[in-house]
Amino acid sequence: MALWLPHRIMQAGLLVCAIAVALPLWMALRQPWLGLSLKPSPDMQSVRLVATDPSGPARDIATPAQLVAVGSVVLEPDDLVEEPDMFETYEQIGQFLRRQTALANVLREPAIPLRLRGGVSGDAETIVTLTPGGRPVSDLPAAFWVQLLTGAGSLLIGMFVLALRPADIATRLFALSGAMVALSALTASIYSSRELALDSGLVRVLSALNHTGSLGFGMAMIALFLVYPHRLVPLRAVWIVPAIFVPWLAADILHLPPTQMAGSQLPTLIEMLLIVAAVLVQWIVNRRNPRARAALIWLGLSVIVCAGAFVSLIIAPVLIQSAPPMQQGYAFGFFLLIYAGLSLGVARYRLFDLSEWAFRIGFYTGGTLLLFAIDAALILLLQWQQTTSLGIALLLVGFFYLPLRGTLWNRFVVRRSLADHEIFRSVIDISLANEPAERAARWRALLEKLFDPLAIEDAGESVPDVGIRDEGAELLLPPVAETQSLVVRYPWQGRRLFSTAHQDLARELVRLLRYTEQSRHAYERGSIEERSRIARDLHDDVGARLLSGLYKTELGATHTVLRDAIADIRTIVSGLSSDQPLLGQAIATLRHEAGDRLSAAGIELNWPIGAADDSETRLDYRIYRCFVSVHRETVSNVIRHAAAHRVDIRVSEVGGLLHTTISDDGIGFDLEHNAGHPNGHGLRGLVHRVNAVAGTTNIHPSPAGTTVEITVPLVPGRVPEASAGTAASPPHSRGRWSPEQSL
Amino acid sequence: MSLPPPASRRQVLIIEDQADTRAWLVQTVASTFKDAEIAEASSCAAAFAWLKANGSGMAASGNALALIDLGLPDGSGIDIIRELNLHYPAILRIVTTIYDDDRHLFDAIGAGAQGYLLKDHHPDTMVQYLHRIEGGEPPLSPAIAQRMLQHFARLQPQAPDPEADGALTARETDVLRLLGRGLQVPEAARVLGITPHTVAGYVKTLYRKLNISSRAEAGIEATRRGLT
């Protein structure tokens, strides 16, 4: 299937087309040439020489004149006929062909005597002997070019549609019809543009091919409308069409039917009628399918109108034995209209279900063609302009054409790719986009940029891993970046295939994306956790405090509660704004705060600077909160209840544990009856808080003073091995109190 | 709002948007300085307007101070501090704030604040601090001290002459270091073997130097961006 890459088909099409154009051109130009313009006389009795080519061998002959004979062959008006199909019977064709051979033999001579009557010599016959030259391109008639253009155009457009949907029977038939028009037009272009005569063998072959092309076009079109838009008959039944017309064609080529009318024009007419009939049936069958009808109108009408115009202008007049109103060569142009109209139909009605990328491929092919055409034209131009204008031409080329050409070349031919850092940046951009839809869009955009494919579509299945399908025509991608599994078709506008290198790149991309997505999810989870933690802190600490303030009857007490609440908020905020506070900083802040508060209460603080002051350990937010509020609470207790004169505080960091000792020289309190003490709530909260981070609290109240020892792990909830040995008190007195426990 | 005051009377401008807080501040100031003439402003705009009309007179009194809230509805109190520092340096500039976070206060000191008060202080504490600031003993929290240390450490290499560039002397650095550890002024004084008054003097100098070096830095930044 990989052979069916759109650009490969288009390249093959271009090649075939170039040969198909070059061949008739070469054949037309290699014929001996005299430079004569001949026309039948008005009375259809003789041949008139109406003009001569000013640079041709016959330039000295005075015109108009009557050309009586070439060599020994006396000319007849029928010798000039454009298309041998115009003869009614095969006998007439046979005679025409024999005369063509005789004339062709004369023309092949090195010196050709022309017998002329009229001109300057009046009624007297004169004989002029000419040496034939090579026919210049400029001498070829316009009809020749119309036929050439029609042939090339219909062939290319047919290939274009085929390239897009190579496996579709409808596009194959359409492409076949285009090829048939090309065959018909290109062969006709050779003999219809002859100056006077070609060898009869050649004419016979060309004519046979011309008939094959015309009937073939009809057959392809009938078959097409049998299966498109709606499949009217089974595919096998379509073979009936060639089964009827191919034998008919063979008979015609062998000149078996009684008249040429029965052998050639009649089947053409019947085909035309069958096309019309098939289109009508399609029209009726598709009455409930507006899209099919739209496509049908476009394609069906253009075929009927254009082919119908050709049939009625060229074929029908022969049937009713009158002269066609226009030259057949020009009438071929109608066929080009069918194929040109089709491309518009693709755009508007998605004929053959071609999507918008159909145009891109057409556009690129057109661009490339244009490029070569301009190149060729310029080369010719430079050859011709060998005087001073050569300089101007070179200047124009240098200043305008080369830059333009570079742009066009980059646009159409050069493959774009991305540098590593751009890829990386794109991946980050995808992952960090806020909206899922935006992430999906950026992912597609990156694929577009990387591979420049003709299509990116939903794979319609779940793809587990990056893979290549269809021998490199398609790249499959697993779901990532909020996007379902994708299939990327025809990379680099169909000019190349996916290789394992691309597969590796895609795999790396998917891995990177997944990784960054995971990181983002982790980050989002983290921020959600953080939010809920703030909510919990605000609710449990600040909320509870404010609530207790609400119940205080004394204003001073309310103020104290409010100040504590503000201090809480400050701790929460500073714990959040500095990502993870250093232990040393936390100690400094607490020392300062305790010093302020104790000195205001007339209590001396002894908290010397120790090793922990220099600690660069980062405190987890929960530990920080616990550490700060436990300190604050204990100092509050001392100020309120201990009647102390002096407080000693030591903080140390040993083996992953943070030890705090706060002792005062106050009056102490009775642990057993603490539940009823106003201090109870504060102590209970303190113990609860320490327990929550898997820490331990030891409280030793005595009449000579109270010592509070608190040990918390530096990592919340994880007590290092060494902890058992570092507890200062015997195990039974280590108060791992739960809040429910009565104090 | 205010009459041209007799030169000796203390002039106080209170800039605070919360009406209750403002009333509380007015009350606290009134009880601290019995003879004070107090003016109020509730926004940056009001403060600037008041200063335009009365700023010179106030500064001339030689006995004026402004309490400036940082979070005002139409801007930052830091702008007012900067304005005062630039045009009415005689007015003592004190920040009253609810955030004691070092960043805001550090910026305010850089802009020329000469002390700060936390609005949740007990009125007695508030009065005490206000007196201290007036007496040239502004507070310095450990966080701000640490930030100052970092700030000046960054400046040190390119400042050979400490006085000229607002860089620190060794003694000043010692004071900062101890305050940064959370020591109170008397403790720091004891550790350094000097009087608390001297330590307080150093703190005042530190405020001034931070202002000078912030201005210098702003100037360098402006030059770098081609603004001057």
Account of the protein in words:
The complex is a heterodimer of chains A (743) and B (228). Chain A has 743 residues and is of the alpha+beta class. Chain A has 21 helices and 17 strands. In chain A, strand 2 and strand 3 form a beta hairpin. With 228 residues, chain B is of the alpha/beta class. Helices cover 57% and strands 13% of the residues of chain B. Chain B contains ten helices and seven strands. In chain B, the strands form two sheets. A five-stranded parallel beta sheet of chain B has the order 2-1-3-6-7, with helices on both faces. In chain B, helix 1 links the parallel strand 1 (11-15) and strand 2. The termini of chain B are far apart. In chain B, 43% of the residues are buried. Chain A binds chain B through residues 559, 562-563, 566-567, 570, 573-574, 577, 585, 587-593, 595-596, 599-600, 605, 607, 609, 613, and chain B through 98-101, 120, 122, 124-125, 128, 141-143, 146, 180-184, 187.
Compute the number of helices of chain B: 10
Low-confidence stretches of chain A: 675-679, 721-743
Quaternary structure of the protein: heterodimer
Count helical runs of chain A. Answer: 21
Distance between the termini of chain A: 84 Å
Which pair of chains forms the biggest interface, and how many residues does each contribute?
A-B, 25 and 19 residues
What series of H and E elements makes up the topology of chain B? EHEHEEEHEHEHHHHHH
Radius of gyration from the alpha-carbon trace of chain B, in angstroms: 18 Å
Any idea what the shape of chain B is?
globular
- Gross morphology of chain A is rod-shaped
Return Rg of chain A in Å: 49 Å
Total E-strand runs of chain B: 7
- Percent of residues in β-strands of chain B: 5-15%
Specify the biggest β-sheet of chain B: 5 strands, parallel
Strand order of the largest sheet of chain B: 2-1-3-6-7
- Note the main sheet of chain A: 6 strands, antiparallel
